[in-house]
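FIELD: query
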Amino acid sequence: MKGKGLKLSVTQLNDYVRRSLASDPLLQGVCVTGELSNLKRHVSGHWYFTLKDEEAAVNCAMFRSAAAGLAFRPENGQRVRVYGSVGLYVKTGSYQLYAEAMEPDGLGELYLRFEALKKKLSAEGLFDPARKQKLPFLPRGIGIATSKTGAVVHDIARVAWRRFPGMPLYLYPVKVQGEGAAGEIAEGIRVLDSLPEVDVIIVGRGGGSMEDLWAFNEEVVARAIAACEKPVISAVGHETDFTIADFTADVRAATPSAAAEVAVPEKAALLQDAALLADRLEGAMAHAVSRKRLALNQLAARIAAQSPEAQTARMRTSLQSASLKLDTLMNAHIAQRRQRIAGVPMQLDSRMQLALTRLKNRLAQADIRLKTSGPMQTMQRGYAVVLKDGKALRSVQQARPHDRLTLVMADGRIAATVDEQGKE
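FIELD: result
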């Protein structure tokens, strides 16, 4: 059956509806009150969100120029008043509210429940940093409480096995939103906590609205995390999403992939560090052994030096040295004495020769004096020496008649008899 209306393409139809909405004065400059949900801040600066009440919801967009002028920071669950115009996005055919301004209009029901529970648990100390546990350096296994059909478990496995191939992963599949999800999540935490091969637990899911993430804002999940004896990493939603589980967990990760990065060390880096530590340990041990060996040798040397044998050897060496020195001194003294004794005959001979020379000189001088002053010179002139009984006569009174006298002349002797004597 053929219609009688205008023939339009999809683009023409959407554009007509867009222009119709734009020309309706009732849809321009409207003020709509509702609760923020699914708030996304794009890298371009534009904001996209849903504004809802108990029965309906409308998609909204706020461009960068309008978002930059806001005097507050909107959050999911917050009740606001949005001023803008209704229009149609031609590409998808969906109508939306183009927000030009926004202001707070009180808090939404979910946000109020969130703040109330957060305040209660904080007062009990469940968020206290002092009670948070440190993650193990090298876990034996990783427990994961999340949906078995979502991308979260695959992201965690991909990152974990890239960093540490073969790392054991233990999945406890749970509902992550909807009725009964909170109870399943809490039970999964308790079961994984009871496994001895699990050292750390990751609890998480992908991004979504505040309603989608609400299971992780339930008190039963928070208390299960607080009671867990093993460290728990919360990886719920995107980096801008915060839940009660994030505040209670020992570590909060921005995304499930980031949780795997935090929980699982890099095996290659560990092996490299282990090799470096082994080299350093080997070097330190070799150095320590060398020092101990040197100290032992020095101690052995000191002990050996103090032994009776060493002392006896030192005394023997000392005595031998003293004896050698004494022998050397005695030999030098004897040699000196011998040298001095050997020189005595020469000295005596020299002195005797000198004495003989002096005597010869004195004798020659005496001979000269004798010859000069003696009777021989006088007798040469014709005189004689008269001897009586071998003694020279000095006076005629010493001779008596008939005395026999000897006359010594220069060339001989004459015997004579005294006939008479008289004085001249």
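FIELD: remark
DSSP finds eleven helices and 14 strands in the chain.
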